[in-house]
Amino acid sequence: MRIAAVVAVAALLAGCTATKLDVTNMSAADLTSSPEFMSIYPTVPDGVKVIGPVASNICQIKKSDHAPSNEDAIKALKVQAAQKGATALAQVTFGRTPTPTPNCVSSAYARGIAYVHN
User: pTM of the full predicted structure?
Assistant: First the structure.
């Protein structure tokens, strides 16, 4: 009897830890606060609502500031796309600009096409 109770509790707890987040149905508002769940695809699929090109550029103003990474630029790109109503991105390119400019010690950028995934 005691073993059955332990097994039942273990099964219940295992079910709780296996909860799956359905990211395919997240809204643009959800993705604005959780941009890590926005999907990136190689090309824009046929039949979707295209929002258009989006871009992010993150600047390191002082040497003591955090140097922006490619991941920082992609996250900013996803937030910008979601704020425009997108739920997915395609044709994303990204990189770093290591050469200082008059306003930035270094910078990272990302570009892509925002659209609403069906």
Answer: 0.77
